[in-house]
Write a structure and sequence with these properties.
3 helices; mainly beta
């Protein structure tokens, strides 16, 4: 679990901005996405794999959309709680190889799962769709495994935190 519980998250977003009283907030979080690849290059739209607790688990900052007042911020890695892990995650390049094909069957169309920093606009009880400016080869993009429709998952990233690369203890990956 991240440093926010669902109850604390709900309390913060229900209260809104304490500086200007608006309810429109910008939430920054590491969110897991499924990215279609062909030959190792992006080939379609990301499918976000989050809702409820899995989204709250990755939240590292909440600020007011109007006055930019910081409602919440945490420099720890949202996945493993390593001190200053967030900075390491956001500023380093992806350490997980991006496959050009499935090693089992050789097909060049695979799905790549990664944690990426994303922004969600939240107003009252309504959350917008996650959006990211982070691309496959940008700092902050954190690959965790690849999947083939025929062969299944391959090349999982194990032994280190998938977000900040800190050594264990590592929590299980979402499936």
């Amino acid at each position: 679990m991240g440093s926010l519980t669902e109850a604390r998250f709900t309390e913060l977003v229900d209260r809104g901005c304490t500086a200007c009283s608006t309810k429109k907030l910008v939430i920054e979080a590491y969110v897991e996405g499924k990215f279609p690849l062909i030959g190792g290059e992006p080939a379609g739209v990301v499918t976000w794999a989050y809702k409820g607790e899995t989204f709250v688990d990755g939240v590292f900052a909440i600020r007011c959309a109007a006055c930019k007042h910081e409602v919440f911020a945490d420099p720890m890695c949202p996945r493993c709680h390593a001190p200053d892990g967030l900075v390491r995650a956001l500023e380093t390049e992806n350490a997980h190889s991006v496959p050009k094909e499935c090693p089992g069957c050789g097909i060049d169309s695979v799905t790549y799962r990664a944690f990426v920093p994303a922004t969600v606009l939240y107003e009252g009880k309504r959350a917008g769709k996650a959006r990211t400016e982070c691309d496959l080869y940008d700092p902050g993009y954190r690959g965790i495994r690849a999947e083939c429709k025929s062969c299944g998952p391959f090349d999982p990233r194990e032994g280190v935190c998938p977000v900040c690369d800190a050594p264990g203890p590592i929590r299980p990956q979402p499936r």
